[in-house]
Amino acid sequence: MHPDTHHAAVLEQYDSRAQAYLSSAVHAQGEDLESMATLVGQRPQAVALDMGCGGGHVAFRLAGLVNKVVAYDLSAAMLETVAAEAGRRGLGNIVTKQGAAEALPCPPASFDIVATRYSAHHWGDFTAGLAQMHRVLKPDGLAIFADVVSPGVPLLDTWLQTMELLRDPSHVRNASLDEWKATLASLGFEAVQIATYRLRLAFGPWIERMKTPADHAAAIRSLQRRASTAVVDYFEIGEDGSFTVDTALIAARKVG
User: Fold this and answer.
1) Would you say 137 and 111 are in contact if contact means Cβ atoms under 8 Å apart?
2) With contact defined as beta carbons under 8 Å apart, do 55 and 36 qualify?
3) pLDDT tens per residue across span 79-103
4) In which domain, by residue range, is 136 found?
């Protein structure tokens, strides 16, 4: 798919859903979000990047720890929502900037901290987006990556990607933890801490947040009802369609 076409698909999905992501409990809280803050600590001189900021929850969490946060996203509507909420919270050190992950319009070594959470699986070019984060990070700077990850087993991977795509056609792919580690290493990142989690997704809010068409939601439920025991057990698929996914947080430093 041509990148511009994929970007258009992302904007179609997310421009009208900014408020839903701002209020989403899945995005607004979580052990991984608190771990990000702990990893950053108090850095009053630091400038941080929230790559693919979505509803802005990473930016909001880091704003009290650093000097400045740049909230960067493809969606202007998301950025308007983030700016308004930052103003409501009195977070005057958050600035917004629009663009794609693969074409970050910032000079090299611009940031002391770069972070991304629940965004990379939407990027048209996963490696290019991570390369941009490496480029703009200062030497020995801190990078933090968090996302839903594939189990890495073909059967389970197929099920995860299928459910994600039926729910949201802007989904590209959830990489496995091994793929994350290999890609980061190839770009010059050295992982210094890795944590994994299990995230429960309530089916109703998960579908509602994306305004998934009824026929797509029905297709997901139909597939779930026909899933093998191995799939049902791994994803802990409930009677109402709720299920559990793997997520990971990787802290890394820029080397070389």
Assistant:
1) yes
2) no
3) 999 999 999 999 999 999 999 999 9
4) 3-150+170-200+245-254
